[in-house]
Amino acid sequence: MKKKILMMMAGILAFPFFSVFAEDPVLDSGNTAWMIVSTALVMMMTPAGLALFYGGMSRYKNLLNTMAMTFTAYCLSSVVWVMWGYTLAFGSDVGGFGLIGGLNNLFLKGITVNSLFGSIPEMVFVLFQMTFACITVALVLGAVVDRMKFSSWIIFSVLWVTFIYCPIAHWVWGGGWMSKMGALDFAGGNVVHINAGVGGLVLALMLGKRKGYGKEAMFPSSIALTALGAALLWFGWFGFNAGSQLAADGLAGSAFLVTNTSAAIGGLSWMFAEWALNRKPTMLGLASGIVAGLVAITPAAGFVNLSGALIIGLAAGVIGFYSVSKLKHKMGYDDSLDAFGVHGICGLWGAIATGIFADPSINALGTGLLYGKPMQLAIQLVSILGTAVFTAIGTVIVVWVTKLITGGIRVDEENEIMGLDNSLHGERAFEIE
C-alpha cells in the first residue's frame, strides 16, 4: 500500500516536469509585442531612414528619384516576399543540400493566425524577415543613384531579391549550408550588408561612372536630410539587431546595448580620423561613421560583449573612412553613395570580428578566436567568401537579364545631365531660383 502511495506521489510531482516537454509551443504575448514593435522599427529604416540618408547625399536634381527608387524597392520586395520570397528563404530545404527552401509556403500557404514560430506568431516572423529583404535591395541603390533607369531598377529589384537575397537568407537563417557549418550572423552581416555591398559594386561597375565623375564637384543636396536619415536608421537598428533574438530577454538587451555602443564610437572614430587628415569634422562623416558602426556590429550583436563592441565600432569608423576617402579612388570605381565602402567593407569587418570576439558567456551558440575556438574565424571567412562570390556572379546574371528585358539599364546622357527628378518624374525637390 505504501509503495502505491509513493508511486502516485512521484507521478504527481513529476507531472509538471514531463508536461513541459509534452506541450506544443505556446504564444508568448511579451515576445510577440516586442517583435511587432521591432518589425515596425525595421520597416521605418527603408522608406524613412534610408530614403532620407541616401536622398540627402544625392545631388539636388536626383533627390526625389533616389527616394522614389527606395520606396519602390520596399514596395516590390514586400510583395515578392509574401508571394514566394519567404518560402524560398525559410521553406523546407530542397533535397537536403542547404541551398534553397521549397515551395511549401508559396503565397504563405499553410500559415494561419494560429501558426507559431517559436513563441511568436509566424505571420509576425514573416513580416520581420520581410523588412530585412526590403532594406537589403534598397541598400544596393546607393551605389548607382544618378544614372540607372527606373524601369530597370524595378526589374532588377524583383530578380535580385528572388535569386540573390533569398538563397543567402536560406543559407544562413533558413537551415542552409552556412548554418550547418556553424557560421555566425546574428542580424545580417552576410545576408544584408556584404550581400548588398558586393551587389551594389557589381551593378555600379556594369553601369559605368556618372557623367563628369572625377572632373566636376558633385555636392550632396542636403546634409541635414542625411543626418536625419542616419538618426532614423540608428533608432530602427535597435529593432534590426535586438529584434533578431525573437524574444524580449537578456540577450536582446545585450544586443541593444552593443548596437548603440558600436554606433556611437563608430561615429566618433570616423569624425576624428577625418578631422586629423582633412582638418574638418564634417556632419556627413559623423553620420557615415554611425552607420559604419551599426553595420559592423550587426552580425556580432548577439554574440559579443561590451569590450568587443567598442573595438568593432572603433575599427569600423576608421575602416569606413579609409574605404570611402582612399580605397574607392585608388580602385577607380564610382560608388555614388558608398554602398560598398560602408556596407560591403564594414560588413566584412563585422563578420570577421564576430569570429574573433564571440563570447560564449553572452551566447553559448558562439565562441570566437579569443575565447578558445580559432576554427570559428575560418568558418566566418568561408561564409564571407561564399556570399561574395555568389552575389557577384549572381548579380552579373541578374543585370544581363534586366538588360534583355528593358533594353539597357542606364538613362540616356541628356536625362542624366538634366537630372532624373525632372526628366523622369516631372517633379523637383527644391525650387532653385
Question: What's the quick description here?
Answer:
With 433 residues, this protein is an all-alpha fold.
List strands and helices in order, with pairings.
Blueprint lengths: L1 H21 L6 H29 L5 H28 L25 E2 L2 E2 H19 L9 H24 L3 H5 L7 H19 L15 H20 L7 H29 L4 H15 L8 H26 L7 H19 L17 H32 L6 H6 L1 H6 L8
Antiparallel strand pairs: 1-2
Helix pairs in contact: 2-3, 2-4, 2-8, 3-4, 3-5, 4-5, 4-7, 5-7, 5-13, 7-12, 7-13, 8-9, 8-10, 9-10, 9-11, 10-11, 10-12, 11-12, 12-13
Could you explain how this protein is built, in words?
With about 425 residues, the protein is an all-alpha fold. It has one domain: Ammonium transporter fold (Orthogonal Bundle), CATH 1.10.3430. Helices cover about 70% and strands about 0% of the residues. The chain is built from 15 helices and 2 strands. It has a two-stranded antiparallel ribbon with strand order 1-2. Helix 10 (about 285-295) packs across helix 11 (about 305-330). It starts with a helix and ends in an 8-residue tail after the last helix. About 55% of the residues are buried.
Relevant terms:
mainly alpha, Ammonium transporter fold, about 425 residues, two-stranded antiparallel sheet, globular
Query: So, CATH architecture?
Result: Orthogonal Bundle
Strand order of the largest sheet: 1-2
The count of strands amounts to: 2
CATH superfamily: Ammonium transporter AmtB like domains
Give helix % range: 55-70%
In terms of quaternary structure, what is this?
single chain
- Span between N and C termini? 101 Å
Compute the average pLDDT. Answer: 94
Based on secondary structure, the structural category is mainly alpha
Count of individual helical segments: 15
Spans of at least 5 consecutive residues whose pLDDT stays below 50 are 1-22
What is the count of structural domains? 1
What is the H/E string?
HHHEEHHHHHHHHHHHH
Classify the beta-strand content into a percent band.
Answer: under 5%
Largest sheet: 2 strands, antiparallel
Radius of gyration from CA coordinates: 23 Å
CATH topology: Ammonium transporter fold
CATH class: Mainly Alpha
